[in-house]
Automatic annotation (TrEMBL):
Localization in the cell: Cytoplasm
SUPFAM superfamilies, per the entry: EF-Tu/eEF-1alpha/eIF2-gamma C-terminal domain, P-loop containing nucleoside triphosphate hydrolases, Translation proteins, Winged helix' DNA-binding domain
Keyword vocabulary terms for this entry: Cytoplasm, Elongation factor, GTP-binding, Nucleotide-binding, Protein biosynthesis
Chain's role: Translation factor necessary for the incorporation of selenocysteine into proteins. It probably replaces EF-Tu for the insertion of selenocysteine directed by the UGA codon. SelB binds GTP and GDP.
PROSITE patterns, per the entry: G_TR_2
Protein name: Selenocysteine-specific elongation factor
PANTHER family documented for this protein: ELONGATION FACTOR TU, MITOCHONDRIAL, ELONGATION FACTOR TU-RELATED
Gene source species: Bacillus xiapuensis
GO MF, one annotated term: translation elongation factor activity
InterPro entries the UniProt entry points to: Beta-barrel_SelB (IPR057335), EF-Tu_GTPase (IPR050055), EFTu-like_2 (IPR004161), Elong_fac_SelB-wing-hlx_typ-2 (IPR015190), P-loop_NTPase (IPR027417), SelB_WHD4 (IPR015191), Small_GTP-bd (IPR005225), T_Tr_GTP-bd_dom (IPR000795)
Domain Tr-type G: 3-176
Length: 634
């Protein structure tokens, strides 16, 4: 069985014993800062290893409980798989308990355990009251049926039981995706003497290896993972769900900050406009107005922006899930499905939270039409989202598909195996139905062109693509044409493309006149007039002359000597045989004139045509017949 990695979080009101409980479970003091020890409150995130066996590894994040450190709290719980909600037996549910519960709900954290701490300070009757109080707060939340564990961190009472419940719950929990692209939202940046810059965070997804080239986003800085540590132990790799410290080369500490994201792939989207689905807190103190400033907490990032509604101008109370948009002051890195918290900057208040529907939000008009479109986006299955992206862009490489669909690479490639999608050119995806539709369009366009110009060899490929390129990518058009040729729908001759059943021909209404023209040309033998005279005499319009001349030449009915003069094919062949039989291996111009009785006007173009056709070769003032057998020497 593949080993799984999890991070759990301690959440709850200030001074309810989260840090003490973490120490009791792990034997690690997570308050590192001098100020934390002096004030006996957690200011920064604290981390510790909790448990490890052959199946799982569990880390703990101790998050600050004080209202002023809510940013650190959000950054800490954003990457956890299970939360231990800590409530002190002597105080019960407090304001930060409620706020942390709401934040956990909005972040989509479903695994929870309730730890009632400091049980040695109160009697059993009071503990029952605290339990009742907590159950009231948990009613209707995902923690409604969460197990209760009574603990005392100083005496270690209940600690083994709590640890056992944590391990059992996580062994039944599915691990985060370790096979997709690596992503680690940075929550701490520091330096180690002699080592340089180190970043720390919870691996959201994917795997990172020592020596791997990575990127810091949204800054776009390229770095290398010089060394990886998991709980102060050097590791070759770090996996989704683990707490990891990564020593980076290629970047200075002052270039980085909490909120930056370390990634291994270009698949993630950097954006300032996101379509979202949000829910607001039950007891909203102040109304939320259209385009009101908000503070977005997503991953470890905190950024200012404005909220834009499309179906209201004010939000007064909780009213189910609301589809809207966040327009941010700075770029963030995100993907579909990422959870976030929204807070009011002043007066400070948690407004609510939700998830990213589309990280590539556009500008939309106010009204029900936009809401319906957002609802489609929200409800879309992976296949629907892939199809929508391809129908819009027509053709996309995998990296761009990942961005547009907000699907991870594993899910995306699995769905792209469906026969509905086509992979071509070694890098692009499109839809089968789209290829069929474009093929039909090309067929119709060729058919129409062939009916209009039946004597032409087909439509020039460049011209064909140019007319369609206004609405379709050239790379896709090239594929459809080549695919059509491969399957016998189209044919190509040099630069011309035509339908497989098409043969260039003289239109019926011009066939008789063409026959008359050829008869006149044949009758005049070798001493012909300019070709245009024959077209004119037969009543063939000037607009058809070029195409008709080419067609008659391709069908081997005439042999043009130059731009003006042409012979009927049978006349030309007879003249060649007459000249061949009347000369030896070599002959001069004068010999040809005598044999064919032609003036220089006809003779020179005739002989140059023989050279061009490879029948003769000019050697100084003579010409030699090619492919002639030399007489055997006796």
């Amino acid at each position: 069985m593949e080993k799984r990695y999890f991070t759990i979080g301690m959440a709850g009101h200030i001074d309810h014993g989260k840090t003490s409980l973490t120490k009791a479970l792990t034997n690690v003091e997570t308050d590192r800062l001098k100020e934390e020890k002096e004030r006996q409150i957690s200011i920064e995130l604290g981390f510790a290893p909790l448990y490890e066996d052959s199946e799982i590894q569990i880390s703990v994040v101790d998050v600050p409980g004080h209202e002023r450190f809510i940013r650190q709290m959000i950054a800490g719980v954003a990457g956890i798989d299970l939360v231990v909600l800590v409530v002190a037996a002597d105080e019960g549910v407090m304001p930060q308990t409620v706020e942390h519960l709401e934040i956990l709900k909005f972040l989509g954290i479903e695994n929870g355990i309730i730890a009632i701490t400091k049980i040695d300070r109160v009697d059993e009757e009071f503990i029952e009251l605290v339990k009742y109080d907590i159950l009231g707060e948990l009613k209707g939340t995902v923690f409604e049926d969460a197990p209760f564990v009574l603990v005392d961190s100083l005496s270690k009472k209940g600690i083994p039981e709590l640890k056992e419940v944590i391990i059992k719950t996580l062994k039944e929990t599915e691990m985060r995706d370790a096979k997709g692209a690596f992503r680690l939202p940075i929550d701490q940046v520091f330096t180690v003497k002699g080592q340089g810059t180190v970043v720390r965070g919870t691996v959201y997804e994917g795997t990172v290896e020592e020596g791997q080239v990575l990127k810091i986003m949204p800054k776009g800085l390229e770095v290398r993972a010089r060394q990886i540590q998991v709980h102060h132990q050097t590791a070759q790799k770090a996996y989704a769900g683990q707490r990891a410290a990564i020593n980076l080369s290629g970047v200075a500490k002052d270039e980085l900050e909490r909120g930056d994201v370390l990634i291994s792939s270009e698949h993630f989207i950097v954006t300032k406009t996101i379509d979202v689905a949000i829910q607001v807190v039950e007891d909203l103190e102040h109304m939320v107005k259209q385009r009101m400033p908000i503070k977005l907490h997503i991953g470890t990032t905190e950024v200012m922006g404005r909220i834009v509604f499309f179906d209201r101008n004010v939000l007064v109370e909780a009213n189910g899930e609301i589809l809207c948009q966040l327009r941010l002051n700075e770029e963030i890195l995100t993907k579909r499905g990422d959870r976030f918290i929204l807070r009011r900057p002043s007066p400070v208040e948690t407004i609510g939270g939700g998830w990213v529907v589309d990280p590539r939000g556009d500008k939309y008009k106010f009204g029900t039409k936009t809401i319906k479109e957002l609802e489609k986006k929200k409800a879309g299955t992976p296949k629907v989202r892939i199809s929508a992206a391809l129908m819009e862009a027509k053709s996309l490489p995998l990296t761009e598909l990942i961005k547009r669909t907000a699907l991870d690479e594993k899910t995306l490639t699995e769905h792209l195996k469906s026969e509905e999608f086509i992979f071509y050119n070694g890098k692009e995806y499109t839809m089968k139905i789209l290829v069929q539709s474009i093929e039909e369009d090309i067929y119709d366009q060729l058919h129409e062109y062939q009916n209009k110009y039946p004597m032409k060899p087909g439509l020039n490929k460049a011209e064909l693509l140019q007319t369609l390129q206004k609405r379709l990518p050239k790379i896709l058009l090239e594929f459809v044409v080549e695919n059509g040729i491969h399957h016998g729908v189209f044919k190509r001759q040099e630069q011309f493309v035509f339908t497989s059943s098409f043969v260039p021909h003289v239109p019926k209404n011009w066939q008789k006149r063409t026959e008359n023209m050829l008869e006149a040309l044949t009758k005049d033998g070798l001493k012909v007039r300019n070709l245009v005279d024959y077209f004119s005499q037969a009543g063939i319009p000037e607009s058809l002359e070029v195409d008709l001349k080419r067609l008659l030449e391709e069908e081997k009915l005439i042999v043009p000597l130059d731009e003006q003069i042409a012979y009927a094919a049978e006349v030309f062949s007879a003249a060649v045989e007459k000249l061949r039989s009347g000369t030896g291996l070599e002959f001069e111009v004068g010999d040809a004139k005598d044999i064919l009785d032609l003036s220089r006007k006809y003779m020179i173009p005739f002989l140059e045509k023989l050279d061009l056709l490879g029948l003769t070769k000019r050697i100084e003032n003579k010409r030699a017949w090619m492919n002639e057998k030399k007489p055997q020497s006796k």
